[in-house]
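User: Some background: our group keeps a shared notebook of sequences we're curious about, and every so often someone picks one and asks for a predicted structure to add to the entry. Today it's my turn. The entry only has the sequence so far, pasted here. Could you supply the structure so I can complete it?
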Amino acid sequence: MSYCYSDMPSPVGTLTLIARADALVGVLWENELAGRVNLTPRQRDDRQPVLLEARRQLTQYFAGERQQFSLPLAFMGTPFQQAVWAELVLIPFGETRSYREIAERIGKPRAVRAVGAANGKNPLSIVAPCHRVIGSNGKLTGFAGGLEAKAMLLALESRHGFTLSA
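Assistant: Of course. Here's the predicted structure to add to the notebook entry:
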């Protein structure tokens, strides 16, 4: 399968938006670790409709004008990863969940570490808000975009009702 992509500047660095014909499949980081997400081969297409809409909605999000994304998504991963990522999409703007809470919500309460690993492989950062997943102790934990980007995203949401201690 081949994918198209477009780059987008953002407050957290350049994001690479990736789509197949009918759905967004990736929002990757400027400092993306090789092999974290494999969505290749890719061809640049700055006019692909799904990518244009993703760019528009992300721009609104960063401007504080959007709290929920309405994009066609296609998660490319194992059934377990897809269950975790689908749960991420359900975390409301301005709220957080722990890895343990995600494990419980997908019916795998003992799979906390596996949830963490799946979260780390989330190909749709920001749109499937893995930045809203924190440690059980309320602390920020690993994030593909870096902890500084995670803190920045949570701070953006805090200006609109989010409290990190929640």
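Suggested note for the entry: The domain at 1-166 is CATH 1.10.10.10 (Arc Repressor Mutant, subunit A). The radius of gyration is 15 Å.
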